[in-house]
Amino acid sequence: MDYENFSKQLKAISDPNRLKIIDLLSCGTLCACDLLEHFEFTQPTLSHHMKILQEAGIVSAKRVGKWQHYTLESSFIAGFNNNVSTLFENGPECACHCKK
Amino acid sequence: MDYENFSKQLKAISDPNRLKIIDLLSCGTLCACDLLEHFEFTQPTLSHHMKILQEAGIVSAKRVGKWQHYTLESSFIAGFNNNVSTLFENGPECACHCKK
DNA sequence: ATTAAACATAGACGCTTATCTATATGAAGT
DNA sequence: ACTTCATATAGATAAGCGTCTATGTTTAAT
After folding, report:
1. pLDDT attached to residue B90
2. pLDDT single digits (tens) B6-20
3. Is the dihedral of CA A71, A75, A79, A85 positive or negative?
4. Which strand (E) or helix (H) includes residue B62?
5. CB B25 within 8 A of CB B59
6. How far does Cα A73 stand from its chain's mean position?
7. Residue A83 and residue A88: Cα distance in Å, rounded?
8. Exposure of B85 by Cβ count < 10 A (0-12 exposed, 13-18 middle, 19+ buried)?
9. Which of A21, A82, B58, B80 is most exposed, with minimal Cβ within 10 Å?
10. B5: helix, coil or strand?
11. Please, where are the H alpha helices in chain B?
12. Using the CB atom, is residue A41 less than 7 Å from strand C?
């Protein structure tokens, strides 16, 4: 498995505020201003977090008028779950190259 | 869900070298010197990584003579998978508090 | 055309992290 | 006792991260 790539996905997720953003988006698409209401930090900070989530392929954005609509990428979730499985399980791709 | 706690677990995992360590341990218990053979960094660096994994409850250690035997904590894996599920799924604990 | 609202970018600051070298500890063999 | 092997700790350094304030950009309404 590609540790570098999986590491980037994990780092994008492993911030408490971004975890909450993902949790919020798991219910459906939201715009930035709706997201911001759930947090104590400033708008530029949200913008920064959303950029990180987008660059990691976790969230997609779409402008609708003045608003940015953010959506969880289902393809990311599938790939992520796949990586978690192969990481913890003693599969044929295991780094130790042992016979299972 | 406890974002702070899940964030700590994720941060402990989200380093490419620690991912590889976990992958290696998914095949079974290994000592530090066996682990070290798979990496380019120095022994103190491995020691540092193992400490982080232990403090996060991901790995347990047991001295056997001169060697430290490291084992993946199955309880961690169960809890981690649980957190991943509740994060991505629109469950009753979702941060948006919407009716499902 | 102006203004206001929603969002992005730039730059700065303090904190954390991954790595290294040097050294300490601890167990086992001679 | 001394040495050797396996591992841990201490301290330093450079890079990355999360947050802020200040400012820019874009869209829509008046």
Report:
1. 80
2. 999 999 999 999 999
3. positive
4. strand B59-64
5. yes
6. 8
7. 9
8. exposed
9. A82
10. helix
11. 3-13, 16-25, 32-36, 43-55, 74-88
12. no
In chain A, which stretches have pLDDT less than 50? 99-100
Q: Which 8-state DSSP code applies to residue A30?
A: E
Domains and CATH numbers, chain A: 3-88 (1.10.10.10)
Please tell me whether any atom of strand C lies within 7 Å of the Cβ of B45: yes
Please provide the size of chain A in residues. 100
Q: Count CA atoms closer than 13 A to A59's CA, side-chain side.
A: 30
B15, containing H or E segment:
none
A10 CA from C27 C1′ (Å): 39
Answer yes or no: do A26 and B94 touch at CB < 8 A: yes
Instruction: Give the nearest partner residue to A23 out of B23, B24, B87, using CB atoms.
Output: B87
Read off the tokens for B30: 């290994």
DSSP structural state of residue B73:
-
Termini Cα distance of chain B: 17
